[in-house]
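Hi P.,

Sorry for the delay on this. The queue was packed all week, but I finally got your sequence through. Input first:
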Amino acid sequence: MNLRLIEPINKGIGNAENSQKEFPAVGLEFGVLGPLEVSMNGRGLTVGGPRQRAVLSALLLSFNQVVSFDALIEKVWNGRPPSTARTQVAICIATLRKIFRTAGLDRETIITATPGYMLSLTGHSLDSLRFEQLVARATELTAENRPAPAADALRQALALWRGPALGGVYAPFAETEAARLDEQRMLAVEQLTALRLQLGEHQAVLGELQALVGACPLRDRLRYYLMLAQYRSGRRAEALTTFRDGMRHSIEEIGLELGTDLQALHDSILRDEFPQLDVPGITMQQKDRQQTVPSQLPESDAYFIGRSREQWLMDDVLLDGSAQNPSPIAYITGSPGIGKTSLAVNWAHRAAHRFPDGQLFADLREGDTLGVLHQFLRQLGAEGPLPAEPADAAERYRGMLEGRRVLVVLDHASSYTQVRHLLPTSGGCCVLITGRANLDELMQKYRALRLRVAPLSDDESRETLTSVLRDARAEESPEATSRLAALCGHTPLALRAAAARLLTKTHWRVLDLVRRLERSGDRLAELSIGDDSLRARLDRSMRELDPRVAYAYRELSRLDDTDFDAAQAAQVLGTDLLEAEDLIETLVDAQLLEAVGRGGAWGEMRYRWQELVRLHAFHCLTAATPCGAALTD
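Then the structure:
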């Protein structure tokens, strides 16, 4: 088999220099995973002549063992030795020793030992030995249910290969050993592919798997992996075609149908049954797997609309994690009712298959950090007493996440302190946070993606109304529907409340609700249904404000123009310009005001209300309850 055809599997997954960190070079470095080579201190040594290369290869393949004269002669001449064979072997040994001494080696490497010679590897390195050790380590890590470090070990192992094994050694024994080593390489490739599929890298391995299956069409396991990767990447028809091509090739070449595993996968794909992430070649402790695959995501939002740009950005940042990098983080923020949680949960469900070790979810309004850590630890399989201190619980939590791919969703975060112990250190995990707080420390300490969710577009708002109504009213009067969307501030929560009103009033037209909202003295009351209404969320947001900021929130609702600057705000609040700016910026951080750019002769920053938020603030201003003292020092 031409191994050049499978070289793409090594691209971007480590290099020989990285593998040397675990096995530092000392003395001579021998290489058989590719053309036979010897180097010392980074400088290649010339081993000339086919006899010398054959003798050295025979000794390397039996390192630290005595190889008799007769065995060396048999290997080099394959049963047809010349009469001078013993002399030629002795000359080859003497020449190799001279090459090593000339390079600066002050100790004997090829030792005379009755009845022949032994190559001592003490103080030296051999790439095939490093390869076997790394593969064995990967197998151990896989059995411990640690797929990410197992994959890294295999990447280092495969990066040692430079081409077909024992290149340039022309002897039957070398061809036999090269075939054995090449098969070990293919098994490692299959094992790495299985782990990458387990880690959710389905799209990343597609091209490599297609090349591998083309080069090795009779390896059922590779075909299985390709079909699974195609199906997981949304290419169901291609997966079925891959099966049919394999069946035809197998029958034509060896007269047998494909194996039962492949046929079972084909039947599952044909019925569109989402195949499990378990793949042949992965052996893990069953007890650990049962204990450590939480699935805590709440139900998806049935009326989720739009947000394609935000989801694309999240895909780009959150799905590119690896064990070598910190856990990717995205922070979704925006005004109350704008759909932060809905976006987070829907994206999490769509990406859940990329996190085969589970999905954790916590609403941070419902418990303190220690309580959430205890909840996560139990979900991850922790048994016995749990740590009583957040730092200790966080250390155990992060240890349980090490080497795993878990999605962590933290909803309604109010501060960095609240989330810092909940952030994994394993690069295979990722974190999705929602909230209205600024979380400056999060942005300072981590390369987090910050997404501010804006109101829906006019088209998305109409689609939301139509999806909830499930009738033709929204489409029959497009102008009235657009006006209703504007009166709802293009806010998902308000739009759904409006549609719900129309659902209960089947005799109303969209225009009837528009006129009612335009005439109402309390539009928010008309658009608030249930305990989790937009008004309830805004009430909660205002209660969380410092009293002076809450006072500013109410008073600034008098500014009902399109936008305003700090000077106008200072006049309304009866304070100086600097304090007005501080109060405004606090409201911006709380997602209750928007900064909209600069204007005026001096380029002052200008701010704007979202209409429904301003209506809430004005309602609080005109309510009978006291509004608090005026701003004074």
